[in-house]
Design goal:
66% of the residues lie in helices and 6% in strands. It is mainly alpha-helical and 450 residues long.
Length: 450
């Protein structure tokens, strides 16, 4: 009988898991056959270790290098652990230079050293030079497969050169114009090259105003420039303005994605390279560290409450209102903290405008402190019927929201000066500040006036 219902369409991950559950290796191979290397990598990262190993066994040899280039952290280490030096070398040969450098940096030290030694002297020297650049700089992002021409070359000669190439480097949208010492003079977009007259010299059509990056330019600054100038590719130069490589938009997308993942995980105190399916013991230990730090900060807030134990015994309503005051401050501070960290990530905040932001957030804190302090005081008055208590509540919330706004600005700026990631430690410190201030003001005023 013909089934009138539409066949259920499974996601690639669901297809793979279904094939694994049936112990059907051929079906697993078929499920990943139409996937791009990045999609295969994402599928591997979405599977528990045992199933991950089963899928890796059917990944075609000629795609393993690109798949490995899209893996990172614990998952990459888990996959390469079972690979022989020969298999690792064969996979590495499939990678572009920038991906290969990132790959080597992510490998355990012994495997990274062994892989480097597998390359011939010239290739090894080039890789060692690239490895000297910080991976969060333009030098760490770049690829060395730039196509260069001399300014006195004719357009027709360049076009004939392209036709003789067996393969054009990926994302080639422009050629770079250099002199005999490789100093960067300009660039020519391929579209301009195609429509130019064959007898023209490159210097007649090249752009002399262009964007290029020094090898030590921060990766996020590179990403910002790509976004603001709608760049698809840009050259990278050394201290002598010599072209050493190029950055393409796909490299920038990788940086943006990695930074977003880092910010998200760091807010929870987690490593950005964490494996979603890491062993339970390993995950418990890594998370437990930040739980321990949080416990210490919570004990500080608890000590404030304990110091006013006698006051709470006299006015039991304080026990119900204390979490409310602390929570309001925590939310207000988190809003400021998030805005500041985002602005810092986008390069919008520096010393020149920090004071403006501080005043702005303080004003917002003052407004919200008055409004929501009054609302909370009214609720407290209706709930407990004590005017003095209501006035204390409005004062505590007003003070805590102002302190929270200031802390949300000052904490990330201070952490950045100390070279500590604000996304990693900011929320922990902020919560401690708002809890302590909220409890201290509420209970301190209650001890004085109730």
């Amino acid at each position: 009988m013909k089934d009138n219902q539409e066949e259920k369409i499974l996601s690639p991950l669901a297809e793979v898991r279904e094939a694994l559950s049936e112990d059907n290796t051929a079906a697993v191979s078929e499920a990943i056959s139409d996937l791009e290397p990045a999609e295969i990598a994402r599928t591997l990262e979405s599977l528990p270790p045992v199933e991950r190993d089963q899928v890796w066994e059917v990944v075609p040899n000629d795609e393993q290098g690109q798949v490995l280039a899209n893996l990172g952290g614990d998952v990459l280490e888990d996959v390469v652990e079972e690979m022989s030096p020969t298999e690792l070398f064969e996979s590495a040969q499939q990678m572009d230079d920038d991906d290969l450098v990132d790959f080597i940096q992510d490998l355990p030290d012994d495997k990274a050293l062994g892989l480097l030694q597998s390359f011939d002297g010239e290739q090894r020297a080039k890789l060692v030079e690239l490895l000297e650049y910080d991976d969060e700089t333009a030098g760490g992002m770049m690829n060395t497969d730039s196509i260069t021409v001399r300014p006195d070359t004719r357009v027709g000669a360049v076009i004939r050169y392209f036709r003789r190439l067996e393969e054009v480097p990926d994302a080639t949208v422009k050629v770079f114009v250099v002199d005999r010492e490789s100093h960067l003079l300009g660039e020519v977009r391929l579209a301009e090259l195609i429509i130019a007259k064959r007898q023209q010299h490159i210097e007649e059509i090249m752009r002399t105003e262009f964007t290029a990056f020094h090898v030590n330019t921060d990766a996020m600054q590179v990403a910002q420039q790509f976004r603001e100038h709608d760049l698809l590719a840009a050259g990278v130069v050394n201290d002598n303005n010599q072209l050493v490589g190029r950055i393409t938009v796909d490299d920038v997308i990788d940086v943006i994605q990695e930074e977003a993942e880092k910010q998200l995980l760091n807010t929870a105190g987690l490593d950005e390279e964490v494996d979603t399916f890491a062993p339970i013991k390993q995950a418990a230990i890594s998370r437990g560290l930040w739980l321990g730090i949080n416990l210490l900060t919570a004990l500080l807030a608890a000590s404030v409450i304990n110091a006013f134990g006698a006051t709470i015994e006299k006015v039991v309503a304080l026990a119900a209102l204390s979490p409310l005051v602390a929570s309001m401050g925590g939310i207000a501070g988190s809003q400021s903290l998030t805005i500041i960290i985002r602005g810092m990530a986008l390069g919008q905040i520096e010393g020149a405008n920090a004071k403006i932001l501080l005043g702005r957030e303080l004003l917002i804190g003052l407004i919200n402190g008055v409004v929501w302090g009054a609302v909370t005081a009214a609720i407290s008055l209706l709930w407990f019927g004590q005017l003095n208590l209501a006035l204390i509540v409005v004062s505590a919330i007003f003070a805590n929201l102002c302190v929270a706004a200031l802390s949300g600005v000052l904490i990330p700026l201070l952490l950045k000066k100390l070279n500590i990631d604000p996304a990693l430690a900011g929320s922990v410190i902020l919560t401690t500040v708002t809890d302590v201030v909220g409890f201290l003001v509420l209970l301190g005023l209650a001890a004085m006036f109730l």
